[in-house]
Each structure stands twice: as C-alpha cells, then as structure tokens.
Amino acid sequence: MHDPQTLNERFGIAGKLSFREAAAGIVVAEIDNAQAVASICLQGGHVMSWRPKSQAEPVVWLSPLAKLAPSKSIRGGVPVCWPWFGPHAKESGYPGHGFARTVPWNVTATGSAESGATRIVLELEPNEQTRAMWPHESRCVIEILVGETLKISLVTDNLGEDAFVIGEALHTYFRIGDIADVRVLGLDGCAFVDKVDDGKRKTQEGAVTFDGETDRVYLDTTAECTIEDPRLKRRIRIAKDGSASTVIWTPWAEKADKMGDFGPDGWRAMVCVESANALDDVVKVPAGERHTLAVEYRAETL
Known about the structure:
By secondary structure, this protein is mostly beta strands. The chain is 7% helix and 43% strand.
C-alpha cells in the first residue's frame, strides 16, 4: 500500500504527519511537530532529513542533488544497510550493503508519544528478488521517533527454524560546517580496519580528524560518539545500542565528484558516523529470536 491518499486516511496525523508522492512511485512521509521536522522515504525505510526546531541547520544531511527513483538508493539521510554490510560474502553480483535501502517498506503504525515526538513504524516488503538473495524466514522493521532527538530502531526477527547471520548499519549522513574542521570523539584506543589503506588494521589515537578520503570500520565498540563542529557551533551526540561497530566515512573531493550526486563541495558539509554490526561484529540471530540495533541522535550548542 503506497497510495498517499490511502496512507493519509489510515496513518496521517493532522498537523503532524502526512504522506505525499515526491516522485513517480516514490512516497515520502513528512513530519512537522512542535519539536522537529523530518522526511522519510517509504522506499528503503529511509529517513531523508531531520532538523530539531532548536537548530537552524538540519542535523541529518540530504544532498541537494539526491535522486528519488524506483530501486535507487538516496544520497544522504539514513540509508538502511541490511541484511549484509559492504559486499556480499559470496555473491559479488548482489548489491553492496544489502537490498533494504532500495525496496519498498510498508507503514504499519503511526502515533504521538507523550514527549510530543511523532512515531512511525515501517516493515520491509520482501519480493521474489529479495527472497532469492535472502532465503531466510525473517521480518525487518524500522521504528522512527521524531522529536527533539531522533530515535531509530532496526529490528530483525528470525521467524524460521535455523539461525542466520546479519550485517547491518544505519549509514547516517550528518550535516556539518566543514569536514576539515570537525572532530569525532569516542573512539580513542579502538581498533579499526582502514579500507582506504588496503584493509590494514590500526588503532585510533585521540579524536578522529579528516584531511582526505576516510573509510574505517571501528570494531568491538559500543561507545557513544560525538561530532564536535566549531563552524556550526554545535556537537552531535550519537548514542547506540545493539551495535558493536562504528563506521566513519567521507569520500573527499575526487570520489565525490565521480559519484555525481553530492553537488559542488557537498561532501564538505557532511560526515557519516554509522552505527553498525560489520566485519568481525556481524550478529547471529537464533531461530525464534530478535535482534535490535537502536540509535538516538541529539544536537547541542558548543
């Protein structure tokens, strides 16, 4: 069910949550409550943007050149990487980071929390193609709570009789003043895989800073991370649960130019700090059990 009129009748919340067709076949949920504004694309279960009303600038970044098209991922926001992270372990032809971010999700519930935040729950809609890539009886649900903070829970239920293994991430793009000026705190002393340097294993010393392309998977860390941003005079706190990896990514100029959907210098205004379970930290979900990866984002004045 992806008809905006039907969705508005069943799940809309007057003055707070509505659905619209943003492009041919692409429906977006728009949230505007007393605390925040956000947009969520039903394709991919993809939070595209979020700005608390206490902030002049968005906290979750969306490229001005982001394309909304069937079966295509969106540049920016919070892409859902599931049920694997990075390339598939055995099938090179399968999509990188899984299929969740490019297939339709169904709205199953909406509501208002006592805090004043707006809640929306989406469930991934399997199809013949996804079942061929992921032949496990499972359910994947994302619950999003939009308020002064942004809470996202990615829930995997194993409905079958055998255990399976998932890799996953909430691949969040954060809006920053300039990539050269920010620092990411919370990973000092952590081991990481440096994907820009042939996958070498290294140890972080101090804060993460940026002077070129960065693509790192920090392992065995459940720590909260903080983006310190002197240009926008704020810090963004990234708390997580059910996640043992943190991924830090920026493409820098040359790679961003090749991607074509960042816009001129768009890469300078974003950094990805992803809450994940990747590489050594993939998760085994026993038969009949559930795994939840949850995050909460908060912006504060520096």
